[in-house]
Amino acid sequence: MSIATPINLVLLSLFVVTEPPPVVFRVFTPTTLLEFNGQDDKPVYLAVRGRVFDVTPGRNFYGPGGPYENFAGRDASRGLAHQSFDLEMLTEDLKGPLDDLKDLDADQLENLQGWEERFLEKYLVVGKLVAEGDAEAPKS
Ligand code: HEM
């Protein structure tokens, strides 16, 4: 008997229509995150304290020419904490350790937490950021 019975086709179409796209939780390094900097049609991601957010719905903010484009594809933690999108807020060495943010003061930590809460409400977490060479890092 064929599996393409009418009832199966109806079930299949329901499945296809109602199933949201699977969210695959991935482990990123600063280098693999950079691919999602909004320079092409790929999703736009940024990291905050090790969480990678899919900020594609905010492409106007983070895409090329957007006010916060520097954050796209990068660890935005320090910039969010300092309320600054200056380039020097970004970790320069993508192959080095992650920014440990140890020097942040109480106000900056509060800023950062505020942004983090906003992002958790607004965006999907699609993965975590680890340093290159971390045991969890994808082999490249
Ligand atoms: C002249 C100064 C600034 C103006 C006029 C401004 C304006 C705005 C506006 C209108 C929004 C959209 C709010 C909404 O509709 O949700 C926004 C969001 C945002 N701003 Fe600013 N901003 C300024 C400075 C900054 C700075 C210095 C930072 C650096 C951290 C920053 C980071 C953000 C972020 C991360 C968002 C959230 C975007 C999102 O929802 O994904 N802004 N800003």
TrEMBL record:
Amino-acid biosynthesis recorded as keyword: no
Family annotation (SMART domains): Cyt-b5 (SM01117)
Transmembrane feature ranges: none
Entry annotated with the keyword Heme: yes
InterPro entries, sorted: Cyt_B5-like_heme/steroid-bd, Cyt_B5-like_heme/steroid_sf, MAPR/NEUFC/NENF-like
One Pfam family it belongs to: Cyt-b5
Alphabetized UniProt keyword annotations: Endoplasmic reticulum, Heme, Iron, Metal-binding, Signal
Residue ranges occupied by any Cytochrome b5 heme-binding domain in the UniProt entry: 28-130
Cellular compartment(s): Endoplasmic reticulum
Protein family (similarity comment): Belongs to the cytochrome b5 family. MAPR subfamily.
Name of the featured protein: Cytochrome b5
Lineage: Eukaryota, Fungi, Dikarya, Ascomycota, Pezizomycotina
